Amino acid sequence: MHTMHYCATHFMDPFNLQAKNRNIKSATNMDSSPTESTPKRHSRHGSSTRTLPRRSTRGPLDSADPIANPLASPTTLAHQTSSQLSPRPSRYHTPHFSYLLRPEIYHPLTLLDVPPPFRTPTSQPAPTSSLQSLIQLGHFRSAAIKAAQLLTSPSLSPSNHEEIFFLLYTRLSSLTLCNQTPLAAQEVKSLEDLNSSYYRDDESGVHLVPWCLRVLAVRLQGMGYADARRGVMGYYDLAREARLSLSSIKKALATDEFDDGEQERLEEEKRMWEERLAELGVRVASALIEMEDLEGAAKFLSTLNASQFPQLETQKALLYLCLGDVDAARLSISSASRNSSPTSTMSSSTDKERDVILALAHIADSEYAESVKVWESLLETTPENDPEVAMYQQNLAVCYLYLGRMDSAREILEKLTDTSATFHALTFNLSTIYELCTERSRALKIGLAEKVADILVESRKQGEGERAGEKVNGDFKL
After folding, report:
1. Residue 118 half-sphere exposure, CB side, CA atoms within 13 Å?
2. Cβ–Cβ < 8 Å for 364, 324
3. What pLDDT is recorded for position 24?
4. How many angstroms separate the CA atoms of 48 and 59, rounded?
5. Residues 6 or more apart in contact with residue 17 via CB below 8 angstroms
6. Around 307, how many Cα atoms within 13 Å sit in the side-chain half-sphere?
7. Pick from 293, 284, 346: which is nearest to 315 by CA?
8. Are 441 and 82 in contact (CB under 8 A)?
9. pTM above 0.90, yes or no
10. Residue 202: pLDDT band by 50, 70, 90 thresholds?
11. CB–CB of 185/221 below 8 Å?
């Protein structure tokens, strides 16, 4: 079956027993000492009722030097003597992140999953390209390699936490975008517990790790440790912090002891934390769907109110479509349209997002003819230079495919490879049509890969970064 792609959580203490045995053996040895030469009267020595104190044990994960483990709890450090802490007190007060700069953390990336037409030097970016340009041009694999090189560079200071966390976020997100999520899930383990006080500033208490990296790390660590519920609990930990920040901001706004500039800043922070809190709710629902807890995800989504943020309502509607609850998806997107301001520029985009969700809902209900009408209406009202046009056209082609209009679907998708961005869903769906049309589909798919590689090389020469990028074998079903 071919799959089409749409865009859019009372025992005895063994140590005391051993101590008692040691006491008994000690008493026995005293009775039978070989140094005594003359016999003495038979006497009976009672064993001492005092047991030896329980000896401290050290597990395989315990560090002999508390300073060597920057994530050790403050209570552990508090029990250390001052002589142990005095040689390097700055390591505790000034966080150093040298443990994130070790080369063995970052895995090498091979070209095995890259189609041969994209392995040529002309298809690869220049080695001197900056990290920012690689990201803008869509070369996420090369960006991940560049970020790892900068992280392991001797010129990077272990105390420069802003640069370290920016590069680490770039590395992990680029790996995710180039289909190397399993590697990202292993590398994120180096961060360990992001809730540790080591990651907070000693004076202000502000978290040193950017919010975007903390959110990404929650999902990746859940995957890396094969514990999906860990990810759900991680989102709840972030939500607890967001609520505390919101409470403090609201208390500050209630005092009325600030100027207009300060009030505006607090209002912006308040809206930022409210949006973060609502986004975490959507991510929890998504994590529950990944856990295949569909019933729990449906119940959770029904309690989630993101009406203040239309974009999150759209994401909520997409999650309902993933659950198969088409009516709830329609209701959710309708609520987003009602809550959007009719005079804002966001209103137009919200209406288009509503139409997209409705078209996808028709597809979910196998109403392909109705979906075609919505896609055609969107194409008529959208400028040709709008980047969303390509998505509308490829979804229209998918509807034609299900209606039996194979030639029309193939014609639309092949034209798109010449005139717009060659995104994953486009090449994947065109490869599916090749498989349905002929038994010699592999030759057609390789030809498609060569064609796309030539287009991307030419677009790079012309400076059209939005059309450039890197592909993998899965984009062409190879």
Report:
1. 24
2. yes
3. 40
4. 31
5. none
6. 10
7. 284
8. no
9. no
10. confident
11. yes
Mention every residue, 6+ apart, whose C-beta is less than 8 A from residue 272. Answer: none
Question: Considering only CA atoms, which of 241, 243, 325, 235 is closest in space to residue 286?
Answer: 235
Helix (H, G, I), strand (E, B) or coil at 200: strand
Q: In whole angstroms, what is the distance from residue 251 CA to residue 240 CA?
A: 17
Question: Distance between CA 279 and CA 311 in Å, rounded?
Answer: 10
Paired strand residues for 200? 207
Nearest alpha-carbon partner for 472 in 219, 110, 206: 110
Lookup: tokens for 470: 């890197």
What are the pLDDT digits (tens) for 68-115?
Answer: 444 544 444 344 443 343 344 444 456 789 999 999 999 998 888 888
Contacts of 476 (CB under 8 A, 6+ apart): 115, 427, 428, 431, 445, 446, 448, 449
Residue whose token pair is 């890396």: 224
pLDDT digits (tens, 9 = 90+) for 216-255: 999 999 998 888 888 899 999 999 999 999 999 888 888 8
What ranges in 343-423 are assigned the alpha helix state H? 345-364, 368-381, 388-402, 406-419
- What is the token pair recorded at 85? 């802490």
Strand, helix or coil at 207?
strand
Q: Which residue has the tokens 């709008």?
A: 386
Residue scoring higher pLDDT (304 or 366) = 366
Averaged pLDDT, 52-63: 44
Exposed/middle/buried for residue 392 (C-beta within 10 Å: 0-12, 13-18, 19+): buried
Would you state the pLDDT for residue 217?
95
Q: What is the Cα–Cα distance from 128 to 124, expressed in whole angstroms?
A: 12
Residue 90 C-beta-side C-alpha neighbours within 13 Å: 3
- Cα separations in angstroms, 98 against 85, 157, 161, 201, 245: 19, 8, 10, 17, 30
Determine if residue 265 is left, alpha or beta; phi over 0 gives left, psi from -120 to 50 gives alpha, anything else beta.
Answer: alpha
Cα 453 to Cα 469: distance, rounded to the nearest angstrom: 9
Q: Which of 452, 405, 410 is nearest to 435 (CA)?
A: 410
Segment 308-333 mean pLDDT: 84
Residues in the chain: 478
Q: At what angle do helices 345-364 and 368-381 cross, to 10 degrees?
A: 160
